[in-house]
Sequence to fold (202 residues):
Amino acid sequence: MPHKRRPHAHSPMHDHAAVDQWRARLALELGRRGQRVTKQRALVVDALLATEGHVNIDELHQRVRKWDPGVGYATVYRTVKLLEECALVHSAQFGDGTTRYEAAVGGDAHHDHLICTHCGRIIEFENAEIEALQLTVASQHRFRMQHHKMEIYGLCEACQQVVVGAEITAAGPPRGLPPRGARARSPSRPRSTPRSAAAAEP
Fold:
């Protein structure tokens, strides 16, 4: 069965020069370990580089299988772990217990994440002030920082509208107000005593 032709592996996030440098680092790191870029490893690498954002092993395996159904899950897993050992990929978990990976292309630039707890959207950001503050804090405590990660959990802009709106609907109207559509009742008045009853009273 002929293999499907895979697209040229350049993510919109990575320029050609950065990818070429990443591949050169890959060849150098594998050479130090007495290994080489096999055909199946190359497929995994291409799928990873063509991925925008983070991907887990299952998702990456499915993408590789579209190009070559003969590539097994174990091959994808071992290749990604090898890339991680070579510091060529970043790994992260975003609160769901699943490890996700992304290629460390572009000078191994560090970035942090905003994670939406409602839809799972991951927003990457860089902030020089935060990075500088972390170094300052580490220095104040005589701590040598090797690496770090920041994950901020909350609601993205779109989910704020959905979730907050749903909470308001579920909570119902404020106390003292009738439900929407209900007929308002006039304040109760004390009942008047019939004249006959009043006359019968001693």
Summary: The chain has two domains: 1-108, 110-171. The first strand starts at residue 89 and ends at 93. The longest helix spans residues 16-32.
